[in-house]
Amino acid sequence: MVGRVLDDIAEDLGLVHVQKESNAAFASRAAYSALRFWMQAFCLDDGYGGVYGIDGKTVERKSAAWLETLAGSYPDVRRWFGSDDRRGIRCVLSLMVSSRNLIVTDEGLYRCVAAHTEWISDDCAVLSGLADPTDPTRPMRANEIGVDPLPFSGLTSAVSCQALPRQGLELSQGWRSDGRAVAGKCTRTARIQPLDERHCLLTLNAALPADTKTARLIGMVSWPQRSATDALHRIFRREYANVITHVLRLEGVRI
Fold it and tell me: Under DSSP, is residue 19 helix (H, G, I), strand (E, B) or coil?
């Protein structure tokens, strides 16, 4: 039964193998994406239909327990998240709050919210809150504002994206373009290379400050490659290349 769970999750979210990706790596990506929905479900299970929410430690504990149920069939998934200090789980939980998939009440409880459009950068909005990824009417939220939604990637699906410059984005050969670092800041560089027809890999020479919009957006729309806490190597759907390139340049990253 467990061995089929991640296959079903991947199918529901439209996730497919990256070229040359191992089964263990694919399972880890699927578990990373699925944890979004499990965390929301945990917060609804407060005994009051999700009105009050639950404390963060309980979300972490329940998330760790869910990952443990996968460990029998996918032991690499548990190692990928980190079996000791739960740092990977906390990374996802932090992103869930910063993107308003969850909110923290005045009492410090984590609560799920209804589906809504949330702008997490000046150029990209995502579908946040409680949403059914298998609901065929979901794209209507994007159609209401005249923009086709981008596919599910990482922890979210973008429902709106303003027009972004496309110069220098010849992904078929791997691409680079000149950028300028912001004066007075340490120079950060990034490289984006295609992995197959559907996916790209972002490689950073240094982690972005976690409190920036750029870091939060990239964290939401991409998957860590080597572990759940990997901030330097991120896999993303090719449709997000313009968005990611644009926000990196705004942060002064040389690409």
Answer: coil
Q: Which two tokens stand for residue 249?
A: 């340049």
- Give tens-digit pLDDT for 56-79: 999 999 999 999 988 888 888 988
Q: By the 8 A CB rule, do 18 and 24 touch?
A: no
* Span between the terminal Cα atoms of the chain, in Å: 44
Q: What is the pTM of this model?
A: 0.85
Placement of tokens 């979901």 in the chain: 138
Asked if 252 and 188 count as a contact pair (C-beta separation under 8 A), the reply is yes
**Residue that the structure tokens 């996802």 belong to:** 92
* C-alpha distance from residue 35 to each of 7, 28, 96, 177 (Å): 14, 11, 10, 35
The SS3 of residue 255 is: coil
Nearest to 255 by CA among 172, 155, 167: 167
Please calculate the CA angle 151-153-154 and round it to the nearest 5 degrees: 160
Residues of the chain with pLDDT > 70: what percent? 80
pLDDT of residue 22: 93
For residue 236, is pLDDT > 80?
Answer: yes
